[in-house]
Amino acid sequence: MFSKVLIANRGEIAVRIIRACRELGLSTVAVYSEADRGSLHVRLADEAFCIGPAPARDSYLNIPSIISTAELLGVDAIHPGYGFLAENPHFAEVCRDCGISFIGPSPEAIQKMGNKSTAREMVRKAGVAIVPGSDGPVRDEAAAAGIARNLGYPLIIKAAGGGGGRGMRVVHNRDDLRRAMTEARAEAEAAFGNGEVYVEKYLEEPRHVEVQILADARGTVATLGERDCSVQRRHQKLIEESPSLGVGPKLRRALSRAAARVAEAAGYTNAGTVEFLVDHAERFYFVEMNTRIQVEHGVTEMVTGIDIVKEQIRIAAGERLAVPREMEPRGHAIECRVNAEDPARDFLPSPGTIVAFVPPGGPGIRVDTHVFAGYTVPPHYDSLIAKVIAWGQDREEAIARMQRALREFEIAGIQTTIPFHQDALENAFFRRGEVYVNFVQRRMDLTVLHV
Ligand code: MV4
Q1: How far, in Å, from the CA of 198 to the mean position of ligand 1?
Q2: Å from CA of 228 to ligand 1 middle
Q3: What is the number of the ligand 1 atom nearest to the C-alpha of 285?
Q4: Residue 230 C-alpha to ligand 1 middle, in angstroms?
Q5: For 80-220, where are the E strands, in sequence order?
Q6: Which of 134, 227, 235 to mutate to test the pocket of ligand 1 (most atoms within 8 A of CB)?
Q7: Which residue, by CA, sits nearest to atom 11 of ligand 1?
Q8: What is the mean pLDDT of the chain?
Q9: Phi and psi at residue 258, in whole multiples of 5°?
Q10: Could you say which residues form the signal peptide (predicted)?
Q11: Catalytic annotation on 292?
Q12: Residues 55, 82: contact at Cβ < 8 Å?
């Protein structure tokens, strides 16, 4: 096992990782930007080192600065968290070259899954369903039009280098194809430095269902059930839950086996998420794999009892998986992401000083946060300030506990997404579990939100 771990991240996930390290008896090194001197992760770690100015490219994305800190302080391993360098194959490779364990998959596995078009090909060859579409990238408008003749409209153009919705365009007819291709390519080039795009049939009202996996260095893969992440806005997830209401034991088994097959085909190790779209007929299609710990991992922890971050560390240290190969959820868990954003102003970021902060607690409630009264939310990073996770014996109890927790939660000084969550939890479609990726847009009236 390692003795010292550097956490190359900030915010609630840095705190989460420090907690896992401490429980494993490992000492921790926090790194922080000039904007994060007073952060909780800095206070909780055994040692802390400033790695640069506030902008992420100068600090949390600054590979030389992070690696030299790791070498100076003699760490055995680096945990990248999510975002920043978590899915950067070059960073994983630099760690390997420096003799530091990267707590995540191999650079090769990150690379393979990072190109969504080659990942699609690999998954198809492994015998898992993908959405009907192009074989590899599409060269030009004419090639896309050829695919449209076979599949019909609507189609969706996606960026090979992408994920998370950037460089995506839905195309409803031949007349829109040229412009959509041009826009998707330009957006992809600007965002990822890779203008490659591919095409899929557009599914109208799917659920976004993802399977959490763990894989050790011996090639053993465990599946920890699914999360439903359909409640999102502009590709930012807002509410996640496990299990998914659209997934019964039979579909879960099929999704889990498909996810395990994907991980095996990729030679994948560590924690990962295999993302599927599930249609109204319960057909499911692979869309992409995320090669990192995810924000929403806590809902899976609540229904499985497994500490996913500790498992990541154990796997990276070469230990064998000591969890069941296929898990069924126990009870139900829901997560609400509390962001420093104003839902009444189109989710405008709301950084600033938090003057009062009283988080909820009690039965079935977990709050992962790095903030406290007197903390100033900097404007430089993403706006997640807390995750409230509610567990119940069933979905109804989980919802009731979440509503109770959100009423208790007192945050003053900034605007947050709590009013949005209160509205969503009351929504009749949400209550019935009729939640698809267009839920927020189609089923919620954001103009009635009053803070
Ligand atoms: C799709 C889709 C419909 N059909 N693919 C969005 C993020 C990425 N991981 C996969 N995404 C989607 N892929 C096919 N073939 C719908 C989404 C999707 C979406 C699309 C447009 C606008 C909002 C969306 C929200 C969630 C998922």
Answers
A1: 13
A2: 14
A3: 15
A4: 10
A5: 101-102, 155-159, 169-171, 197-201, 207-215
A6: 235
A7: 165
A8: 96
A9: -65, -45
A10: none
A11: yes
A12: no
Nearest CA to ligand 1 atom 5: 202
Separation in Å, CA 436 to CA 205, 338, 421: 6, 21, 16
Give the tens place of pLDDT for each residue, 63-76. 999 999 999 999 99
How many residues appear in the chain? Answer: 451
* pTM, 2 dp: 0.97
Instruction: Match 């420093």 to its residue by tokens.
Output: 340
The β-bridge relationship of strands 352-353 and 207-215 is unpaired
Q: CA nearest 132: which of 116, 119, 148, 118?
A: 148
Q: Which of these is catalytic: 10, 292, 314, 401?
A: 292
pLDDT surpasses 60 at 30: yes
Domains of the chain: 4-103 (3.40.50.20), 132-201 (3.30.1490.20), 207-443 (3.30.470.20)
Confidence band for 451, pLDDT divided at 50, 70 and 90: very low
Contacts of residue 438, defined as CB under 8 A and 6 or more positions apart, other chains included, come to 205
Residue 286 CA from chain centroid, whole number: 16
C-alpha 165 to ligand 1 mean position (Å): 7
